[in-house]
Amino acid sequence: MLLSYHLDATHLVVELGEVVDLDNEAAIEREIVRLLPCCGPRAIIVDLRTPLLTPRALGLLLRVRGQAEERGVSMAVVAGYVTAREVLSAAGLHRVLRVAPTLPGAELRNRGCRPEREASRNGKPGDRRSAPRAAGAARPARRHLPAPFPRGALTAEPVAGK
Fold first, then answer.
1. Given CA atoms 122, 128, 133, 137 in this order, what sign does their dihedral have?
2. pLDDT tens figures, 22-74
3. Are 83 and 50 in contact (CB under 8 A)?
4. Are the C-beta atoms of residues 115 and 109 closer than 8 Å to each other?
5. What's the predicted TM-score (pTM) here?
6. CA distance linking residue 107 with residue 112, whole number of Å
7. pLDDT tens digit string along 136-155?
8. Half-sphere exposure (CA, 13 Å, Cβ side) for 31?
9. What is the DSSP string of 9-65?
10. In a designed cystine with 109, which of 37, 60, 76, 94 is the match (CB 3.0 to 4.6 A)?
């Protein structure tokens, strides 16, 4: 039912390519939990291959995460579709489930690294995937942008002088 493979010695990837609904939720959960390593890989990555995340899918991911934690296995989620990431973010699960837009990003999230920015996939200079700075090299200057609204403009209090 689910395609799974070892990314490396520490990561097991499980691809979820179907929409989770009432009819398949229990079977998918059983299969993923069965794949949770008891020895060997200490991390699992669930690769969501569908843009549609139902409430049942969110519940399933949280339950699997709980099962993984009980076994000492960390879990991350690849959400390659923007809509899937938006749903996870709106539900407040992007941090809990260690969501990343790419498989390498999920691997980093499982290691405890910060989430990758979407722009970092373009490989532009200065982003996290570019070569590290040489020892002693200066950091790029920070740009300071003006505030979009005058101070007090977004409060209910009247601004002095008006």
1. positive
2. 999 999 999 999 888 666 668 999 999 999 999 999 999 999 999 999 988 99
3. no
4. yes
5. 0.68
6. 9
7. 555 555 555 455 545 554 44
8. 15
9. SSEEEEEE-S---TTTHHHHHHHHHHHS-SSS--EEEEEE--S---HHHHHHHHHHH
10. 76
